Amino acid sequence: MAQVLDLKRQLKHLYNPDAKSPSLVDVPTLRFLMVDGVDDVRGPAFAAANQALLSLAHQVKFGAAKRLELKYPVMPLEGLYWDAEEGPLAPLEDARHTAWRLMSLLPDDVAREFVDEVRAKVAVKRDLPRLADVRVQSFTEGRSVQLLHVGPYADEALTVRRMRTFAAQRGLAFAGALHEVYLDDPGRSAQEKLKTVLRYPVRPEKQGDPAGR
What we know:
By secondary structure, the chain is an alpha+beta fold. The protein has 5 helices and 11 strands; from the N terminus they run βααββαβββαββαβββ.
């Protein structure tokens, strides 16, 4: 009998947060399929990385159900963004070059070797230039502030300011890259209705900490 992982229910606090007010969450170490890039955010290079990542994620899911007797949903696409030259604590809006990392959650039960087997089969059937660049890696975010942003990506700055104020009121400062979780497909949803989880890791604020985004 196949094992079923209800990841959406298990991780509901991370993938379905409140849109009314920011909250603090403890994010456990999670495994992802990842692929990196610089600049061209949501342009052709970004789209190619996205296509390779999600194609592999779906084929790994189908393969796991068939060969590993493990069923789970492909979780929403996620992205990390930071200043490619100054690092994740620099104000992102001032970045000359933006580094990004696209991610898709991968259950612990799916081994790296299995992913590589599926990748080899996908490569035979599809021409995905970034397929070989997709890797399996764990990511530890820890204590974070998050808030659900509803609306266009271009309007995220106001939501981020609310998050920063919330953190500062609790003696915390942003301590890492902006993390976005895309709950809707921008090609299928109206811009004003797009739902995106915004998250920043935080740490106790110290004198002289960069302001962040």
